[in-house]
């Protein structure tokens, strides 16, 4: 007797009339409120986004500072032309 392979795929867990993947895709499209991501996936993505934000901030802080308009006077307001 063979055992069923473990899977994380929702397509294999949903039982609809035909059980075909194409029909599952149609059902998923028709019922977006019943389809949710797993808590594991959501937690993983949240962690990835946090790490990405930390890395981006570190890159910005470690990069060299460049003066965009070094020849302009800093004491004159932008609208004042004297």
TrEMBL record:
Superkingdom of origin: Bacteria
Basic residues bias: start-end ranges: 18-28, 41-58
Region ranges (Disordered): 1-82
Compositional bias of kind Basic and acidic residues: 68-82
Protein name: Uncharacterized protein
Organism: Vreelandella janggokensis
